[in-house]
Design a protein that fits this description.
By secondary structure, the protein is mostly beta strands. Helices cover 11% and strands 50% of the residues. Strands 2, 5, 6, 7, 10, 11, 13 and 16 form an eight-stranded mixed beta sheet that branches. Strands 12, 14, 15, 17, 18, 20, 23 and 24 form an eight-stranded mixed beta sheet that branches. Strands 29, 30, 31, 33, 34 and 35 form a six-stranded antiparallel beta sheet that branches.
Length: 449
């Protein structure tokens, strides 16, 4: 005889099974929200118990997709799998929405699945050519209209190439990049990056061209050379559209010859004169033209000596004398050297310069090289005093430009300064005197006369 609990359990199972048969159909699956990517295959479950003779429908809005095992829709991407599960292949954006699995009885029980279709980003660029041009001072607008699901973000960068390496400078976000008051440095590559986390980001590059008239810089405005030597003139031209560059001598256009060659390397335009002759000395002009304007820069080719460069230390080794050393570049021998020096009376509130002393220095023996080195001893100086000096040199082509002001001081005195204090102490004074150099040159011209 079976135990009483076994008999009771068997009875309960029978009652439960009978109730299930009497309850009618019910869903074993549950409604769910699905996120799928364009092109994927999606399976929407619909599992029903005790369906009996009732018909199961799949609907999307008012449209019926399936009835029982019959495919109502003509879209071949839809089909029933393993009973009443609805499969959609090659999902597209149009497939987003609610799908209803419905039992066709009086209660109209249903189960709803919501489908969200994730769409990788796409971009519509403007200008379509990916190239924009605007004049300097004007404005330019670059545009990346992005679409996709979720809504993509748009980030702008400028692509900067430095010594072969490319770096990105972030500029902002949004569909448009607006650039105003354009300057030459705004030219270059720009990129918008569109990303929504679905698939790889899309990068679209633009080329911005800022148009401007020519700008010229010269390596040296004064080129020192000598007869039989060579002279090299270099001007750097920046322009967009590219400029036509011509060389002139004394307002007459130059053309290439056996001694004169013109070359271009990037933005650098070089005029090379070989075996310089007397007629080659004078003023040369680099002229650049494009459709937006013209620019010019002048270069003097001269046989006159270069400006003197002082090489002696600013601190004397004596109380009353100082050995002044300087060098001068000159291809021919130097004919004459002149020195002007004076004492400065200095306190905390003012500087009172003294009288200029004019000294003619004997021309050094021919150096056999470009650089001539000169040493001259100044005697009878005041102890612990500060002096300043300028030098000018002459060869057979004429006098050179007056040198920069050089300052030195003698040993001794209660207000003597150290050598490392001299330049900072008088830097302001030097700047002030350089601004009135015209007056100084006029004085010196008078003395030379």
């Amino acid at each position: 005889m079976e135990p009483s609990w076994v008999i009771l359990a068997t009875a309960l199972v029978a009652v439960f099974a009978q109730n299930n048969r009497n309850d009618g159909p019910r869903f074993l699956s549950r409604g769910h929200s699905f996120r799928t990517v364009v092109g994927d295959t999606l399976l929407l479950p619909c599992q029903v118990q005790n369906l009996g003779s009732l018909v199961l429908l799949w609907r999307r809005g008012p449209a019926v997709l399936t009835a029982a095992s019959l495919m109502v829709t003509r879209d071949e991407r839809f089909r029933l799998v393993d009973g009443y599960n609805l499969q959609i292949t090659d999902v597209g954006p149009q497939d987003a929405g609610d799908y209803v699995c419905q039992i066709s009885d009086r209660v109209a029980r249903d189960q709803v699945h919501t489908v969200e279709v994730l769409v990788p980003p796409s971009v519509r660029a403007s200008p379509e050519s990916r190239h924009a041009a605007a004049r300097r001072g004007g404005a330019a607008v670059l545009e990346c209209r992005a679409s996709g699901n979720p809504v993509p973000s748009v980030t702008w960068h400028k692509l900067v190439r430095n010594r072969g390496n490319e770096s990105n400078t972030r500029l902002g976000e949004g569909a448009q990049l607006q650039l105003s008051r354009l300057e030459r440095h705004h030219s270059g590559k720009y990129a918008c990056t569109v990303d929504n986390g679905v698939g790889p980001p899309i990068v679209t590059e633009f080329q911005l061209q800022v148009l401007y008239p020519p700008e010229i810089t010269v390596e040296r405005s004064w080129v020192h050379t000598g007869e039989g030597f060579r002279a090299e003139l270099l001007c750097t031209v920046l322009a967009d559209p590219p400029a036509e560059v011509l060389w002139y001598q004394n307002s007459f256009p130059l053309s290439a010859s056996e001694r004169v060659t013109m070359s271009v390397r990037g933005n650098n335009h070089t005029l090379l004169i070989a075996n310089v002759q007397p007629e080659d000395f004078g003023n040369f002009t680099c002229v650049a033209d494009n459709s937006l304007g013209r620019a010019r820069q002048h270069v003097e080719v001269s046989g006159r000596p270069g400006a003197a460069r002082f090489t002696s230390p600013p601190l004397a080794r004596s109380r009353t004398s100082y050995t002044l050393s300087f060098s001068v570049d000159s291809y021919p021998p130097l004919d004459e050297l002149r020195l002007l020096y004076r004492q400065l009376a200095i306190n905390e509130s003012f500087q009172q310069p003294g009288r200029w002393h004019d000294v003619v220095i004997p021309a050094p023996e021919p150096a056999g090289s470009l650089t001539h080195r000169v040493t001259h001893e100044l005697k009878g100086l005041e102890p612990g005093a500060v002096y300043e000096a300028i030098v000018q040199a002459k060869n057979r082509y004429g006098w050179n430009e007056v040198s920069d002001i050089f300052q030195f001081h003698t040993l001794g005195g209660s207000h003597s300064v150290h050598a490392d204090e001299l330049s900072p102490m008088f830097s302001t004074a030097i700047a002030c005197r350089l601004t009135i150099s015209t007056t100084l040159l006029a004085l010196y011209t008078h003395l030379l006369g």
